[in-house]
Design goal:
Blueprint (H helix, E strand, L loop, with lengths): L2 H6 L1 H18 L15 H9 L2 E2 L1 H7 L6 E3 L6 E2 L5 E2 L22 H5 L22 H4 L5 H11 L9 H8 L3 E6 L1 H13 L10 E2 L4 H6 L10 E5 L3 E7 L3 H7 L6 E2 L15 H18 L8 E3 L28 H4 L3 H4 L2 H7 L3 H4 L2 E3 L2 H4 L19 H16 L7 E2 L32 H7 L2
Helix pairs in contact: 9-18, 11-12, 12-15
The structure holds 2-acetamido-2-deoxy-beta-D-glucopyranose (3 copies).
One 2-acetamido-2-deoxy-beta-D-glucopyranose binds next to helix 17.
């Protein structure tokens, strides 16, 4: 990202620069892969760190990175120490409370998230963290606890959701912008990440990704979707979303950020083309791979996120097309449980792109298998999009794992609070041993027990 490199590659970088270099460098230092947070603190500095005064978010933001102060989040109650370590609250592994990713009770009100948004926000869907575009499971399925049921199911399947704190994910991306570029599902993951990290934001309203409103609006893909939007976090950190539905749009929008996936459907796109959709998909992603290889030095690090499963009544669960009788009834993905090879490989889209991923991206975010069991938390009346919190929150959990394991995110030391929890008596047997900083999530979610549940 040197100036010389920029000049040499000017034709490409014009738009890149607008999005990534100018917009980010002006206010957000690009600390792509490097962070002092990775070093294990010496006992001495650890003691000093633990003794650091706790600040409010405003004080902590004003103090800047590196100040000898600590910040404790008000609801998730994790602490970020000055040396970058994350300290968990006493009783964080309390099995009787919902993991923070799924805890809607502590989420902000509409007034708090959207109160300061006006209608003329230049095409940016300003409103707002944790509103999820009104796709809350509790609204779609009143009284049914579908989010809690999804969280319980996932934890039974071996995903320790309660162990991921906003402090950890924030520390992984601190000083950088985490982009979600892709279709409506990717936007769902953006909304989940934004909500999860809200305790690091001084305002819960989204802001345009680019400083120039006209330029930002020009990056809007469709009139009914938001122009690129960000939740701005402290210490030069942002989490942003941009809608791009095709590989070609990804190149022209220059939103080459992490993570993204694309939208190729035999029913909605490319209707005029005689080329089979799989062929179009592979051809365009092959082009994107070549483009990425060619411009690797200017591009940020990329995470390729798998396409998630659908749970329609078709053999592989895929969308049956608009002619099929409605309402759709979702059902468990029988083909997966029966071992159908293409379904196990993530259906045709994931199977087709898998060989390209090592050159297309720096790492692969595998969400398909883990999401297979979640057939009961789609939006009412369809079997593709999910309500919140459910699958998209799982994807954020898995994203933290790949950012950690690939080294794309900063290394973060996570530790339990010193001393016994004050009210430990009520806590169940601890699953905590499973994870402090290191343990990876199981790659495969659905155990035999789960198969039995889903097949009922
Ligand atoms: C666990 O959570 C429950 C419900 O939120 C609470 O009543 C209990 O005190 C908590 N126990 C610990 C050890 O934090
Ligand atoms: C659903 O949530 C309500 C309120 O939190 C609780 O009383 C009820 O037991 C829950 N039901 C199930 C099936 O978890
Ligand atoms: C899903 O898990 C199966 C093993 O159970 C594995 O063979 C397959 O590669 C996984 N699929 C994806 C898309 O990760």
């Amino acid at each position: 990202m040197t100036a010389a490199g920029g000049r040499r590659r000017l034709p490409l970088l014009l738009h890149w620069a607008a999005l990534l270099v100018l917009a980010l460098a002006a206010r957000y230092p690009l600390q792509w892969l490097h962070s002092s947070l990775g070093s294990t603190p010496s006992p001495r500095s650890a003691m000093a760190a633990a003794a650091a005064p706790l600040m409010t978010l405003e004080q902590w933001a004003a103090a800047g990175p590196g100040a000898e102060v600590a910040y404790r989040t008000p609801h998730s109650r994790c602490t970020l120490l000055p040396d970058g370590r994350v300290q968990l609250a006493p009783g964080w592994d309390n099995s009787s409370s919902l993991p923070f990713l799924f805890d809607t009770a502590s989420m902000p009100t509409r007034q708090a998230a959207c109160g300061s948004c006006d209608a003329s926000s230049h095409g940016v869907q300003c409103c707002g963290a944790c509103m999820f575009g009104d796709r809350l499971c509790a609204a779609g399925y009143p009284g049914q606890n579908r989010s809690a049921a999804a969280a319980e199911l996932l934890m039974r399947n071996g995903f320790p959701l309660q162990d991921l704190t906003p402090c950890e994910l924030f520390a992984r991306i601190r000083g950088r912008t985490l982009w979600f570029a892709g279709d409506s599902h990717t936007w769902g993951a953006f909304a989940a990440a934004e909500c999860f990290l809200r305790e690091f934001a001084q305002s819960l309203s989204r802001r345009p990704a680019l400083h120039d409103p006209a330029e930002n609006l020009a990056l809007r893909l469709l009139s009914h979707v938001s122009a690129p939007a960000c939740l701005e976090l402290v210490h030069g950190t942002r989490v942003c979303g941009i809608r791009v539905d095709t590989a070609a749009a990804l190149q022209t929008k220059r939103a080459s950020t992490a993570p993204f996936h694309v939208h190729y459907s035999p029913f909605s796109d490319f209707k005029g083309s005689s080329e089979p959709i799989r062929q179009t998909y592979v051809r365009e992603l092959t082009d994107l791979t070549a483009w990425r290889q060619q411009h690797a030095l200017q591009l940020p690090r990329l995470v390729w996120m798998e396409t998630g499963p659908q749970h329609f009544f078709t053999p592989q669960g895929l969308y049956p097309g608009p002619q099929a009788p409605k309402p759709y009834r979702c059902r468990p993905l029988q083909a997966w449980y029966q071992g159908d090879p293409e379904t196990r490989a993530g259906s045709w889209r994931n199977a087709a792109v898998a060989p390209l991923v090592p050159r297309l991206a720096d790492t692969h975010l595998r969400i398909y298998n883990a999401s297979v069991p979640l057939w009961e938390s789609h939006m009412p009346g369809e079997c593709s999009h999910w309500c919140h919190p459910a699958a998209y929150e799982l994807w954020v959990f898995l994203l933290n794992d790949v950012l950690r394991d690939s080294g794309l995110g900063s290394a973060v030391v996570v530790q339990r609070a010193m001393g016994p929890p004050p009210d430990a008596a009520g806590a169940g047997p601890s699953a905590a041993a499973a994870l402090a900083a290191g343990a990876a999530s199981p790659a495969v979610a659905a155990s035999a027990a789960e198969a039995a549940t889903a097949a009922r």
